[in-house]
Amino acid sequence: MKIVLLGYMASGKSTIGKQLAKKLYLNFIDLDDYIEEKEKMSISTIFKEKGEIYFRRIEHIYLKEILNSDEKLVLSLGGGTPCYANNMDFINTTNAISVYLKTTIKTLVERLLKEKSKRPLVASLDNEKITEFVAKHLFERGYFYEQANFTLPIDNKTINKIVTEIRILLH
């Protein structure tokens, strides 16, 4: 079994993925961490030095590598992963189960403001501009996110509650 968690940045994919993997006795892979390990540089450095097109190409290659492996795992994607290189089509044609962790703009903005410095896409934005940025991005990406096997609204839920709800979806 492969479980793929997708959603916007700060929707909790990595946090929830780690807990879900622990409960299901599966390995956990964060795609961004995997890319950084393979490329021996941070995502922001890859973007700066090699550009987004290069990043999206290798992101697709590593996604395929992980999903084509025989390993049972929980995989959290980067926020943009489903939107490029026909990645959602690929995910949906594998034996993976995809879950969209759906979060409201309000919740995402609250979370992003707390960790702004760790989020290169919003780090340089004025706080007032972040809501507009998230709303526009979410609108553009929603089409891809909605192609997941399951959509799980997660606002105002504990990590344990979300993990439990995902486990229920899987049965």
TrEMBL record:
One of its GO terms (molecular function) is shikimate kinase activity. Substrate binds at D32, R56, G79, R141. InterPro entries: P-loop_NTPase (IPR027417), Shikimate/glucono_kinase (IPR031322), Shikimate_kinase/TSH1 (IPR000623). ATP binds at A10, S11, G12, K13, S14, T15, R119. Pathway: Metabolic intermediate biosynthesis; chorismate biosynthesis; chorismate from D-erythrose 4-phosphate and phosphoenolpyruvate: step 5/7. Gene3D superfamilies: P-loop containing nucleotide triphosphate hydrolases. Its EC number is 2.7.1.71. It holds the Pfam family SKI. It catalyses: shikimate + ATP = 3-phosphoshikimate + ADP + H(+). Its main location: cytoplasm. This is Shikimate kinase. It comes from Polaribacter pectinis.
